[in-house]
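re the bet — no i am not wrong, look at it urself. input seq straight from the record:
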Amino acid sequence: MIIKMTDVETHINPRNVDIGDIGSRFYTEDENTAFIRIRINYNGSPVDLTKTDMKPKLDLFMEDGSVFIDETIDILIPESGLIQYDIPSNVIKHIGKVNCKLFMDSPEHSVHVANFSFTIVDSGVEEAVAKEINLNLVKDTVKQIMSEDLTVLLNDGFKDKLTSDLEKYLSTHNEEFKGPKGDEGPQGEQGPQGLQGEVGPQGEQGIAGEKGDVGPKGDKGDKGDKGEQGPAGISPTLPDFTNWQKTKLTDTKGNIILLNDFDFNTIDKSNLTTGFYYVTKGIGLPTGVTNYGYITYKRLNDTVQRIEYSPFNSPDIYVKNKSDTWSDWKKATLDTTILNSYATQQYVDNAIKQYVDNKLSSGSTNSTTTPTTSTSFQIQKNLLTNVTTNDLAVNSSLLSYKYEALQRTDSGKYGFKGTFVNNNSNDISMVISVDQIDTSEKTVTLKPGTNNVELTWTVDGASPSIYFSNTLRVKIDNYNGITVKSSTLQFGKLV
C-alpha cells in the first residue's frame, strides 16, 4: 500500500493565519491512503495538547460548494502538538480546490489557528458525486441552512460566501421553490394621497434655442457713472543683460574673481581675461612678498597687456607689462619728498585758514590749538587701513587693529600718528600699546579741541626667522565725545 502524507506547520498568530496552498495533490482513487499531518505551534514552540482543554477542529469547504464541519482528527503526539487528518472516502470524491480552516475549540473559547488549501484531482474512474453540506440535503436545503447557526460556527467570511451560494442556488432553481399561479385578486381600494416629496435636483440645462432676429435700435441711454480703476497692466519685460558683457570684470555678485595656484610665468598659456582677481598660492610673483593678494589684469591684445599686484594688507603695488614680451615685476614707488612737501603745504594752508577764521570771529589772534610739525616723523610704510571716523565714538573705548606680520629681524623704530578731537571740556587720558613690540605703554593726554599724537617704539631683531602678528591697541578712559579727525590712523616704520 502506498501512503500519501503531507506535513503542515501552523503558527497561532493574531495578525496572519493564511498559509495558502500546501502543495498537495490527492486523487479521487486515494481512498484510505491520503493523510495530512499538522503541527500546531505558538510563540515558536509546539503546543502541548495535554495542558489545555482546547481540541483541534477542522472544517472543509469544497470547490463544488460542499461543506464538511468538524472533521475527525487524530492526535498523534499530544506533547508535540502533532495531529493527523485522514481524508475520508466521502471527502476524497469531491474534485477541485479544498479550503481548510483549523480551530482550537473548548466549551468557553475558540482560536482560529490557520487557513490552508490542497487539491483533489479526478482519477477518471469514479462517477460524479453530489454536493454535500454535513447532511444529505435535498429541496429543504435553504430551510436547514437558515435554521442552523452555521454562520457563528464557521465565521471568517463564510457568511458572505454562504449568502452568495444561496442566492446563486435560488436563481438557478427558482422553479423548485415556485408554487402554482393563483387567481387574480380584486383591485384594492385607492390608498390615501401620499405626502409631497422633496424637491428633486435641478435638471441639466436644456439645448440652446435658435438665435432670434435683431431687434430695433434702442434710444440713446444716459451717461453712466465713472467706472473703477482697472488692474495694473503687465510690466514690460526687460531683455536679459547677463551675457551682454563679453568679458566679466567680476563674478555675478560683483565680487572679484578668485585665482588659486596661478602661475604668472605662463600667462599667455592661460585663459585669463581683463578683470579683477584675488590670487592665493600664486607662482611667479615679486620676490620677498606674500603669495596672496589683489590682481588687476588689463588686456588690449596678444601683444599689449598689463598686470598690477598688491600683496594682501599692504599698500605696495607691483607692475608687470607686456609689449611683445613680458617685463619683470617692478615696484610702483611714490616720491615721498613730493608727498611730504604737499603735506607740509597743506598743513600751512590749514593753519592760515584757522588763524583767519579765529580773527574774523573773535578779533583775537590767539589760536585754541598750537600746531606743531615734525619733519622727522615720516612713516615709510603705513600698516593701518580702513579706519573710520566713528570707530572710537561709537564702538568701544578699546580700539584694536591687527596689521600684517613683521619679521623680528626688521629692527628699527616704529611710530604711531593720529589726529583726535576731544569735544569734552576736560582732559582725557589715552593709552596706546603695540603687542610684542614693546612692553611699555604710551600715555597721552588729550586736551579739549584738536590733538595731534605722535609716538615711537623700538623693535629689537634678536630672534631671526620668527614671524608674529602685531596688534595696535588704543584705549581711551572716556571715549564719549572723542572722534578721529582724519579717516586714517597711521602706524608703521619710520623713515
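see?? The chain has seven helices and 28 strands. told u. also The first strand starts at residue 4 and ends at 11. so pay up
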